[in-house]
Amino acid sequence: MHKLVTISEVTQRIVERSKKSRAIYLQRINAAKLTEVGREHLGCSNLAHAIAPCSEMEKENLSGMKKENIAIVSAYNDMLSAHQPFASFPPLIKRALAFKGATAQFAGGVAAMCDGVTQSQPGMELSLFSRDNIAQSTAVALSHNMYDGAMLLGVCDKIVPGMFIGAMKFGHLPMIFAPAGPMESGISNSEKAKIRQEYAQGKVSREKLLKAESASYHSSGTCTFYGTANSNQMLMEIMGLHLAGSSFVNANTPLRDALTEAAALKLLELSPQSENYMPIGEMIDEKSFVNAIVGLLATGGSTNHTIHLIAMANSCGIKLTWKDFDELSSITPLLCRMYPNGSADVNHFHSAGGMAVVIKELLNVGLLHEDVNTVMGHGLSRYLKEVFLEDGKLVYKNSIEKSGDTSVISSIENPFDIQGGLRVLDGNIGRSVIKTSALKDKDRVITAPAKVFYTQEALKEAFADGKLNHDFVAVLPYQGPKSNGMPELHGLLPSMGALQDKGFYVAIVTDGRMSGASGKVASAIHLSPEAKDGGIIGKIADGDMITLDCDNGVLSIDVADEVLATREISLPDMSQNMNGVGRELFSNMRRLVNSAQDGATIFESVGEESC
């Protein structure tokens, strides 16, 4: 156990660790800062190409070199429910800006895959790598240097982190993220999970399962459980990249539309032509990232962000480590209960006071940095507001003082747990992350024999054959980024959850990921080094005793080091993971990607890029 720290101490260590790379980053964006509209330097032929399809009024405004031109980068597609509402956003943005004499252009789209569709499918092996692809696509969209700011339209798992990484390479521009908002609540998440487990046990039909799933995911808008997508929205608000109070306003409502228009106008207030020029690369700093980690821990957010936040910070010269997460977790209370950490969803969270109440609770005891820049202005206290639509106009009012439903949002005085929802585990197997916020006390410390599986399907088959009715730790090596792209292994949970409900002590150890909606089964994930890098997880054999101890931060195997040293690393046949559904196109990423604890990214650190 490490000694308790303060957020100031953790922040200062990050600042010291990042001093060289952050200075290089700030020097680069300072050199790119605008003193005129971005398109002013373009030649006539360049500009003619850029404005050719515009209306006559837009051409006049763009040629006048006086008013801002805003880029729209969107993850719209109409298969992914969270992004389908973005279809209507560009016209809203363009109309709002036109009234101010400014313009907007749809600069580019980025990939937007749905992890809910690809769970347990081969396409899931592209999911994590899509983040860096999205970062590159965002950079391509902004590369024309036509813009004085950007609106980034994204919600889901890899999309917001990817857009952020790409945006930070244009850190001299002001930018704002605009979410689509969640769908309204459907069938309860606990009922959905129950039916999934019953289906895994053969107790209900596929038709009943589909009916339950469709009652949960039933319209456009973000899924309502608190997984990676909604953790993204929390992060964007607590980092000051959303308008205050906007993250969890339902999709396709008048208030949602008004917030989208207001976000566009906010960019004009932050542009180089305004008196309050605030480029995103300067606005976001070390304190912003500490606030993000504390928010993640206090709300019981997705484990995926122990990867994403490191990669996001790296993109602007800030170096985070898993130790930062672990130390902050030791002093951050768990304030929220949302599925999978409870029965409520994000709509219940928003109704109980949402982000404003959480931020207020944490600010009151010094667990967040107040002195940060945001799109709302200086100071995180600007986010202690609720937003309403009155007579067609946005109105901000002070938020409620305390939670409106203490079963969803608690308080500093009576938290759901005195520590945050994530822990880092260390031991002779390696270093991993575990989500603790949804674990029962009896599942926090488990010692049981290993059972090694190389695929989710192999475990499901063993479960169906009745071979897993005992205590065990499921070990799944070769699921890391260098092996097969580090897919989420959410398909394990119905079987493992059913075994847990029968009274067996079960857990998971893997160098892969779990879904942001996971948490009931103790899962030591993101194990580094991964099997493909020679990690000990590749030497574990059936019957080896494994201890997973969340209370003391330990993950160990009861096998002597000299015995492990003589064992051969298992080498399963991975050829079937190298092709199909486009996996051939990502082979270079598998070769170049670094470890999960370094962000699982192909991008080099600021200041260390290859010549």
TrEMBL record:
Gene3D superfamilies xref list: IlvD/EDD C-terminal domain-like
Top EC class, one word: lyase
Catalytic activity: 6-phospho-D-gluconate = 2-dehydro-3-deoxy-6-phospho-D-gluconate + H2O
Residues reported to bind [4Fe-4S] cluster: C156, C223
Cofactor, free-text remark: Binds 1 [4Fe-4S] cluster.
GO biological process: D-gluconate metabolic process; Entner-Doudoroff pathway through 6-phosphogluconate
Domain Dihydroxy-acid/6-phosphogluconate dehydratase N-terminal: 67-381
Entry's EC annotation: 4.2.1.12
Needed cofactors: [4Fe-4S] cluster
Keyword terms, alphabetized: 4Fe-4S, Carbohydrate metabolism, Gluconate utilization, Iron, Iron-sulfur, Lyase, Metal-binding
Domain Dihydroxy-acid/6-phosphogluconate dehydratase C-terminal: 408-600
GO cellular component: cytosol
GO terms for MF: 4 iron, 4 sulfur cluster binding; metal ion binding; phosphogluconate dehydratase activity
Pathway(s) this gene product operates in, as recorded in its UniProt entry: Carbohydrate metabolism; Entner-Doudoroff pathway
UniProt superkingdom: Bacteria
Record-linked PANTHER family: D-XYLONATE DEHYDRATASE (PTHR43661), PHOSPHOGLUCONATE DEHYDRATASE (PTHR43661:SF1)
Function as written in the Swiss-Prot or TrEMBL entry: Catalyzes the dehydration of 6-phospho-D-gluconate to 2-dehydro-3-deoxy-6-phospho-D-gluconate.
Name recorded for this polypeptide: Phosphogluconate dehydratase
Organism: Sulfurimonas aquatica
